[in-house]
Amino acid sequence: MLRLPKIDIVSIDDLSIGEIERIMVMADGFAQRLEAGERLHIAEGMIMATLFYEPSTRTRLSFESAAHRLGGSVISSASMDASSAAKGETLADTVRVVSGYADLIVIRHPYDGAARVAAEYARCPVINAGDGSREHPTQTLCDLYILRKKKGHLRGLTVAICGDLKFGRTVHSLIYALARFGANVVAVPNRGMEVPDYVLARLAAERNYSFSSISISELKALAGGLDAMYLTPSAPHQMALFTSDIPVINPAPPSPGPASLDAFYVTRFQRERRSEAERDQPDYVRFDARALKTSRTQEAVVMHPLPRTDELAYELDTDPRAVYFEQAAAGVPVRMALIAWLLENAGRDTIKPGTAPLVLKAENAPPCSNPNCISRRESRYLRSRFKPAPAVSHHELCLRCEFCERELKVQYVGHSRSRRYYRFDESLLGFVRQWLEDATLVVFETVKQAEEAGYEPYRRGPQREIMNAEEINRAVETMAGQIIRDLPDLARVSIVGIVSHGAVLAVRLCEIIERRTKVRIPCAALDVFRGYDGLQPLGGAQTFDVEDRTIVLTDDVINSGWTVQRAMTTLWKLGRPAGMRLAVLVDRGHRAVPIRPNYVGKNVPTARNERIQVRLGEAGEEGGAKPGDRVMLYSMVESLKEAGESA
Amino acid sequence: MVQMSAANLTVLDAAAIGRCVRRLAHEIVEHNPQTGDLVLVGILRRGANLALRLKSALAEITGVDVPMGTLDISLYRDDNRSGSGDPRLLAREVAFSLDGKRVVLVDDVLYTGRTVRAALDAMADLGRPESIQLAVLVDRGERELPIKADFVGKNVTAPHGQRVFVRLAETDGTDAVLMGGAK
């Protein structure tokens, strides 16, 4: 059996510049040998498995052709559907099994970061053939190959990339690669399809790139008045950055823009990654021969990853500068070169040097903010993983997802050993790094989440009791009475309590209503921080339906109202409630959304730095006040900085 | 001034609508003295027209040009049921991030609250605003959701079965708020 080294090509960054150059040279050789009709046996005995969870013609066929041309063979599954796979087998299990059948796995998957997961679980090497809106490294190799062939080299090229730069995964991989070769990238996005911030952040952090919006008349002519974004290495040759159309933040003298363009890279609109509402794009860029007529662009070649829709004029096809069909044809020799390069490295020590990333302690990590991230889609076995990223604001900790690179910004951090939480500010950064290293860092999106997890503020001021057990009991009884009076058709009412005190309240309301009316109302707990997965039926029920029901949403304290808004979003994703009422034990004011509770146990005007803490014991005995119940008001000292000042 | 016309009752005439918009603008400024991070988001079509009027009223009062975006939220039926659907987002024209902004959401009539809920949902994808406040020309009560407007032009109690509709010069040729059974 042929053993390939465990070298995974998940990102174009998994290959060094030298390795990319080597693969280019090998691809040249294979192109010639194919031309000469030579039969090759380099990969005899190798079995490559193609796992395509998304439709693809050219990537899949060119990979399979490359394997056959090298004398290897291919196994494949006729049709894989990520949605049905999601119901059944996990991605991890599939690749574990398939890596026993094959020497190499080529995977395409709709979720961001899926290839990284496949690489971690497969015993054989994994090549990413596109994962969600992230990367497509072999397409990038083809792009680089054509650029090198047409321009003679890859160093310091100026490439304009046009169209959908938000979801185009080929584009992200290409930008990373071009940056490593010191290229200037002129991004010409359609409005609303700009290069995502996380890509820019990575370029800034890893390649020392800086960027600024500019508008170049030539580009305007071809892209219909769109602004261009200029990415340029800060060293060695700094190009002047300036803005013209948008308000100038750092006024700088206007620069002439790039001397000349080496290539245009046109991309199609990634329709399939858009919601219904955004699928119509009448203003999408259309590239035609006019763009090649200026003195700065006449040497430029036109590239496109194909398939094209309407963005590339057919009249260009006969122009010698249009190289997109050559680009597609390069798919086979380049992929042959990649496979042959893996074979060439068969003896190589596969453990790449480098420091293991600091990873947020698994059980405490919040979910990734990207709903298409594999860590959220396959959360049954994957835990979110983050690395600290350069922060933009002094009051937010920025964490980057290890799978999809999306950034998560958090305002509250906690220390799991002392069980204290703090509002993040820069002065905490040293501690945060230390806690991350000790795996004692936890992060919270809100104070509520921290308190639900049993964390106490770093330091608190004087406190006083604003409701005792008896008052709480009376308030809940009153609210139950109001619900019975307001909603005569109790058979169509359901109660949803926000975890955890809201859920306790929900159960108590249900019990009181049942005692008084003999109607048993369905009840569920909702964990707003876990979204859709967070709805748990209570009281022994297996299912909970929101369709056409009047939902009484309960929570202990309403403050800004964002939690309630989030709960509504989740509930409306599950169905269409006939209506909703909101019941809270305490309304403390400070609303930030236009939401008003229908039933309030007690209105408590508070200052912003005051907190309300609710203690509600689990419902146990029938009716009556629970002795441990109370509502406390205290002022808090949120951060070390404030504590230092007041001390 | 309330007067009878054919079948419909005029709740607000053109002059009264003008006064309402100016008062709403003053109230918005009063509650948001820092106009720097204020943005308007209008719900198409009449909410967007009102937002545009508020924008010029705000410019008059404060001299600040407040950025504005629109949301298109319509009744959306995705199944064969004869029952009423829920409003959903159809399109979104907000050319700026809502991160850290104080958003004033503008609509013509606040009724069940379902449109506002859909709008809150739609804005969640556009960043993390500091706050969202709701301004409406008419609040006709009978809420089905726990939604409350921060700024209200006029509260109207319509008898059951009666409708309240807003006519604006930009869409309907005339400015009026009417109540009755017929359009």
Q: Can you give a write-up of this model?
A:
- The complex is a heterodimer of chains A (about 650) and B (about 180).
- Chain A has about 650 residues and is an alpha/beta fold.
- Chain B is an alpha/beta fold.
- Helices cover about 25% and strands about 35% of the residues of chain B.
- In chain B, the strands form two sheets. Chain B has a six-stranded mixed beta sheet, with helices on both faces. Chain B has a four-stranded antiparallel beta sheet with strand order 1-2-10-9.
- The longest helix of chain B has 18 residues, at about 15-30.
- The radius of gyration of chain B is 16 Å and the shape is globular.
- Chain B starts with a strand and ends with a strand.
**What is the ordering of alpha helices and beta strands of chain B?**
EEHEHEEEHEEEHE
Largest sheet of chain B: 6 strands, mixed
CA(first)-CA(last) distance of chain A: 70 Å
Number of strands of chain B: 10
Q: Please, what is the average pLDDT of chain B?
A: 85
Oligomeric category: heterodimer
Count the domains of chain B: 1
- Give me the side-by-side strand order of the main sheet of chain B: 5-4-3-6-7-8
Largest sheet of chain A: 6 strands, mixed
The CATH topology of chain B comes to: Rossmann fold
Count of the separate structural domains of chain A: 4
* Radius of gyration over C-alpha positions of chain A, nearest whole angstrom: 29 Å
Shape of chain A: elongated
Helix content of chain B: 25-40%
